């Protein structure tokens, strides 16, 4: 996580997990860390086009950043936690969602991008051979199934982000952000996969 805060999810019940997850991903709390990274990319590295991506709870942080900061041109949430279809429906940038077999179903959220003209630049895929957490730092990458899926996911993200960059040159108006100043609001979230956290990153 952004601030290297350890958590022992295996020892907590669902209610405590939900409250802890909401606190860790609370946008006004995480914004300063995300902005610091973004400002470094812009001011030091002189990067002009920035995508935001995160896995697990970082997927919620990435979705929040993409929603409330118009400087991002795309978002990837990889086996996200605390992200629901309503969160995705509020995004107005190309978005990638990738999950394991026990992650929530994000079909409705991804379908909402078709109505925004971003359907060709958004993507959703479930890898049924792995559990939630297959990209986490604790995942067993020596297992060829997990490492193959991880490589596939990184390839998907790079491919779609490349397509967005190319398409922005041809039809920039399609990717224009609303620019409206948005007030942060808490949303109800669904935690759909913590029951198998003991097997996170495992193979089905």
Briefly, what is this?
The chain has 204 residues and is α/β, with parallel strands linked by helices.
- Report the major sheet: 4 strands, parallel
Which series of helices and strands comes N to C? HHEHEHEHEH
Count of helical segments? Answer: 6
The CATH class: Alpha Beta
End-to-end distance? 26 Å
Q: Strand-residue fraction?
A: 5-15%
CATH architecture: 3-Layer(aba) Sandwich
Mean pLDDT: 81
Strands, total number: 4
Strand order of the largest sheet: 1-2-3-4
Report the principal-axis shape. Answer: globular
Helix percentage = 25-40%
Radius of gyration: 17 Å
- CATH fold assignment: Rossmann fold
The domain tally reads: 1
Spans of at least 5 consecutive residues with low confidence: 1-7, 184-204
Give the class from helix and strand content and strand pairing: alpha/beta
InterPro entries: AB_hydrolase_fold, Dienelactn_hydro
Pfam families: DLH (PF01738)
GO molecular function: hydrolase activity
Protein name: Dienelactone hydrolase domain-containing protein
